[in-house]
Design goal:
By secondary structure, the chain is of the alpha+beta class. The chain contains two helices and five strands. Strands 1, 2, 3, 4 and 5 form a five-stranded antiparallel sheet that branches. Helix 1 packs antiparallel against helix 2. The longest helix is centred in the last third of the chain and has 20 residues. It is globular. The two termini are about 20 Å apart.
């Protein structure tokens, strides 16, 4: 990925990770995830996991076609990188990242069916 295509702009890729933070076990998993991310990337930003500022909801199916709304407290992690999203090694690293997150939640007996990782390309204004 080329950098500084235009004066004052850098190509930027942001990896957004949304982590359930509903109880002490999940918060412990988040602390382990953050520690591992700090070893892997040069920098990251994250919201607090205790009393998270983000709340999401999802529908849990019940019998008879009914459902129940489930509240999900969420910690948000974002990582800025200059990785090339079209490079197969970047895609492989996302698969490993997803598995690492699932493993940490499983280690605290809070397995997750889904892990939300969203990658966005853009520009960072510098200077």
């Amino acid at each position: 990925m080329a950098t500084r295509r235009y004066t004052g702009l850098d190509d930027q890729v942001t990896i957004n990770i949304f982590l359930p933070s509903n109880n002490t076990a999940e918060r412990f998993a988040i602390s382990k995830i953050i520690t591992r991310l700090k070893r892997r990337y040069m920098g990251l930003t994250y919201s607090r996991s205790a009393q998270p500022v983000f709340v999401g909801y999802w529908r849990k199916p019940l019998r008879g076609g009914k459902y129940q709304w489930i509240r999900d407290e969420i910690a948000w992690v974002f990582i800025d990188t200059t990785a090339d999203v079209d490079d197969i090694s970047f895609r492989d690293s996302l698969a490993r990242l997803k598995q690492m997150i699932k493993d940490e939640y499983k280690n605290v007996y809070r397995p997750q069916k889904e892990v939300w990782i969203i990658v966005r390309e853009g520009y960072r204004v510098i200077g």
